[in-house]
Amino acid sequence: MIVLRREIGDVLRDARQRQGRTLREVSSSARVSLGYLSEVERGQKEASSELLGSICEALDLPLSLVLREVSDRVAVAEGLLIPDTVPDEFATAVDRFPSSPRELTPVG
Predict the structure, then answer these.
(1) Domain HTH cro/C1-type: where (predicted)?
(2) 28 contact partners, CB below 8 Å, separation of at least 6
(3) Per-residue pLDDT at 78
(4) Domains of the chain with bracketed CATH
């Protein structure tokens, strides 16, 4: 079963670690206790929208980006296909640089 608080925690922890920052640094910047931030990252506590906003600000990440990553992870866990931003047909057509629009044919 997908637990949203775990996915949120994983995304936040991954972002913090990619930045090479400690729990102490981020908790101080977000004005949240180190223990509470640790519990949020481990998916043991639900972060309120205000707290999540503070953590994202401390990590210098847009909340929308964090929520997008969480959404993508949930979709994958549900077995949904997440489309690429650029459809294969378009990418293939651009690679071929057709001389006329009629040469744009779907691939596959």
Answers:
(1) 12-66
(2) none
(3) 87
(4) 4-82 (1.10.260.40)
